[in-house]
Amino acid sequence: MACSIEKELIEQTIAFHGHNCPGLSIGIRASELAMEKLDIHESKSALCVTETDMCGVDAIQFLTGCSFGKGNLVHRDWGKSAFTFYDRDVGKGFRALFRDDFRESEKDAELTRDLMARALKGRATGEEQTLVRERRSQRIHQIMNADLDALFVSKEIDAPPVRPARILKSIPCDTCGEMTMETRIRLFDGTRMCIPCFQGVEQKI
To answer: Which of 54, 71, 102, 190 has the least CB density, counted as fewest CB within 10 Å?
Structure first.
């Protein structure tokens, strides 16, 4: 079934992100799934853990109200198109993984990557630029009009995927003097360092 989110809201999501693309569409449909399963929309008790930093995360921020600043949007850099939504008030949630069988074939994906790379470098011909737009439009249409069950594998969870956000103490880096969250301080030869300063002296990084 086609996406049930109002067209105007979808257009606002596209404007928030800056452009329309297949990745954003995945985020829109994942948000729709969260709205259907958990009635998540600007909920103070909502939580999302995203395992990717792709375009779709902007859709999740805009449509669900989860955000990095509020601490209820958490990024785990695992490189998977997967999103876990949880409602603390009702104590339930689910993890949605984008289905492998809905991805582009490796051949098509390679062609798309090559065309996009040529277009970004200004080397694509007019015909190739048209092909990029057509392929992107077709892919967006496929994602936005598919059944949610065809897009995602969902698994219910009954415990929050992360601990609640908390305010942590900041301490000065002994090298640059900048205040740094205590959990991000590194110790080197008895000196407390922020991560950038630590990276400057640690040979194995």
So the answer is: 190
At 107-153, the pLDDT tens digits run 777 777 777 777 777 776 778 778 778 888 999 999 999 999 999 99
Same domain, 187 and 90: no
CA distance 53 to 142: 22
pTM of the predicted model as reported, rounded to 2 decimal places: 0.79
CB neighbours of residue 186 within 10 Å? 16
Q: For residue 77, what is the domain's CATH number? A: 3.30.1330.130
Helix (H, G, I), strand (E, B) or coil at 183: helix
Could you count the other beta carbons within 10 Å of the beta carbon of residue 60? 24
Give the chain's domain count.
2
Q: What are phi and psi of 5, to 5 degrees?
A: -70, 140
